[in-house]
């Protein structure tokens, strides 16, 4: 049965990239599928163990999920550390995955920088915990932005190696299903999870530099629109957003070599649930001096209600904690069944 899992780290302010690349898509998927949305607090320890305000940040991501429209009664919203299976399965996956696989992760290389010997072991093992998040629920679909693609390929590699290494035990435990991967028949306990990376905003770029990803860690706040920004902030940032001197093209191929223009058109398209082609058909030939105010108005219309609802929710931390607790209990039941199967399969007494 199709099942969606995804997560967001409680580090820093959520920005438009997180919203358009991930959270807005989480909301859309809940109409068609069962969904589990997690605040991955354990992942946020890999960069820095001691966080100021980690609890507030965790609640803030949960508030963003709810404010954006995720229905925590129909679906599961919880925080990772409240379900022990994540760390437990991650340990087993640490023994399935190879160091070479981890060393090849571009995000590890970027985050560890030059002084790799001094990066935390957790940062290296990060993708193994991410695979555990997904496979603990045997989730089949994972909506994420483009930057998570390599981690999801690794998740499939871990699932595949586990299935192949323990095929006989999976059968003996009376669990798993026959699938084919390529041409190969496999008796699989873990599914081959499908990444869901689609739409105009799988990679929202910095407003200051169309070749850089919009990110929480960019020192310039002008580079991103935060979900907590008010109408004035949004207006100022879009006004200052880097562009080129040309008018907007009428067709998609006219955006080639124009990363800033392409980014703003993509943002407009995603915020209005339209395609980039459609947006260009309307705005082609117009200058940024006309397009930017339209984009500002659209962004404020979409983000202001979310912003207001987030503030309302954050004013009642007890309510958020209760939502997370209920979600953790429901997630914990599924997780416990998987852990019991996994222990049986690998022979832990
Ligand atoms: P995180 O917290 O960095 O980002 C959360 C989500 O936002 C997406 N995203 C973007 N999308 C488009 N444009 C951008 N500029 C942009 N920046 C961020 C990310 O791709 C992500 O979908 N490793 C994950 C968290 C995680 C996870 C998981 C995700 C842990 N376990 C299991 C899915 C399934 C991360 O650091 O996301």
Automatic annotation (TrEMBL):
Keywords attached to this entry: Aminoacyl-tRNA synthetase, ATP-binding, Cytoplasm, Ligase, Nucleotide-binding, Protein biosynthesis
InterPro entries, alphabetized: aa-tRNA-synth_I_CS, aa-tRNA-synth_Ic, Rossmann-like_a/b/a_fold, Trp-tRNA-ligase, Trp-tRNA-ligase_bac-type, Trp-tRNA_synthetase
Pfam families: tRNA-synt_1b
PROSITE patterns: AA_TRNA_LIGASE_I
Enzyme class: ligase
Binding site for L-tryptophan: 133
Highest taxon, organism lineage: Bacteria
GO MF annotations in UniProt: ATP binding; tryptophan-tRNA ligase activity
EC number, as in UniProt: 6.1.1.2
Chain ranges for the short sequence motif 'KMSKS' region as given in the UniProt record: 213-217
Reactions catalysed according to its record: tRNA(Trp) + L-tryptophan + ATP = L-tryptophyl-tRNA(Trp) + AMP + diphosphate + H(+)
Gene Ontology CC annotations of this record: cytosol
Compartmental location: Cytoplasm
Entry binding sites for ATP: 9-11, 17-18, 145-147, 204, 213-217
Keyword Cytoplasm carried by entry: yes
One annotated GO biological process: tryptophanyl-tRNA aminoacylation
Family: Belongs to the class-I aminoacyl-tRNA synthetase family.
Assembly, per entry: Homodimer.
NCBIfam families, A to Z: trpS
Role this protein plays: Catalyzes the attachment of tryptophan to tRNA(Trp).
Entry protein name: Tryptophan--tRNA ligase
Organism listed in the record: Pseudohoeflea suaedae
Gene coding for it: trpS
């Amino acid at each position: 049965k199709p099942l969606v899992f995804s997560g967001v780290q409680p580090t820093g302010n959520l920005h438009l990239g997180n919203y358009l690349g991930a959270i807005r898509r989480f909301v859309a998927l809940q109409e068609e599928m069962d969904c589990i949305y997690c605040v991955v607090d354990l992942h946020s320890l890999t960069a820095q163990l001691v966080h100021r305000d980690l609890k507030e940040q965790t609640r803030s991501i949960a508030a963003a999920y709810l404010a954006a429209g995720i229905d925590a009664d129909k679906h599961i919203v919880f925080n990772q550390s409240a379900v022990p299976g994540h760390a437990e399965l991650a340990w087993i996956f640490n023994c399935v995955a190879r160091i070479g696989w981890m060393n090849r992760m571009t995000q590890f290389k970027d985050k560890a920088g030059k002084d790799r010997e001094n990066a935390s072991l957790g940062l290296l093992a990060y993708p193994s915990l991410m695979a555990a998040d997904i496979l603990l629920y045997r989730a089949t679909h994972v909506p994420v932005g483009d930057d998570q693609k390599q981690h999801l390929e690794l998740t499939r590699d871990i699932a595949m190696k586990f299935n192949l290494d323990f095929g006989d035990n999976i059968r003996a435990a009376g669990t798993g299903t026959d699938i084919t991967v390529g041409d190969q028949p496999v008796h699989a306990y873990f599914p081959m999870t499908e990444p869901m990376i689609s739409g105009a905003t799988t990679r929202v770029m910095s407003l200051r530099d169309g070749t850089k990803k919009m990110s929480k860690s960019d020192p310039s706040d002008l580079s991103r629109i935060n979900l907590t920004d008010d109408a004035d902030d949004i207006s100022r940032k879009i006004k200052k957003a880097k562009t080129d001197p040309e008018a907007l093209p009428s067709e998609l191929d006219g955006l080639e070599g124009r990363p800033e223009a392409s980014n703003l058109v993509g943002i407009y398209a995603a915020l209005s649930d339209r395609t980039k082609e459609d947006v260009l058909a309307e705005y082609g030939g117009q200058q940024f001096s006309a397009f930017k105010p339209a984009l500002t108005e659209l962004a404020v219309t979409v983000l202001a209600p979310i912003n207001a609802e987030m503030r309302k929710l954050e004013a009642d931390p007890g309510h958020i904690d209760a939502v997370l607790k209920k979600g953790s209990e429901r997630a914990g039941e599924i997780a416990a069944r998987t852990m019991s199967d996994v222990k049986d399969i690998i022979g832990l007494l």
